[in-house]
């Protein structure tokens, strides 16, 4: 059986704070939430770099939960 997972990663980059917020949600093929995480990264980071970090963090979460292949 093929299992399909959806991984959503979002960022919050605000010019008046010295951190970037990242949120990640993993869902199965019918939309049930399997895992969620959020974190803050210190520093002023461009939105493009913040998105890259969010994708990296989401990929690491998926691997840690065994969502490989």
Structure, explained:
Residues 20-69 form the RNase H type-1 domain. The chain has a three-stranded antiparallel beta sheet, covered by helices on one side. It has one domain (5-64). The two termini are 12 Å apart. The protein has one helix at 47-64, and strands at 5-13, 19-28, 33-42. Strand 2 (19-28) and strand 3 form a beta hairpin. It contains one helix and three strands.
Key features of this structure:
alpha+beta; single chain; 69 residues; 42% strand
Euclidean distance between termini CA atoms: 12 Å
Order of helices and strands: EEEH
Please work out how many helical segments DSSP would assign: 1
Q: What is the subunit organization of this protein?
A: single chain
Secondary structure class reads alpha+beta
Count of spatially separate domains? 1
Name the shape in a single word.
elongated
* Cross-sheet strand order for the largest sheet: 1-2-3
Q: What are the low-pLDDT stretches, counting only 5+ consecutive residues below 50?
A: none
Ordered list of secondary-structure elements with their pairings:
Layout (H helix, E strand, L loop, with lengths): L4 E9 L5 E10 L4 E10 L4 H18 L5
Antiparallel strand pairs: 1-2, 2-3
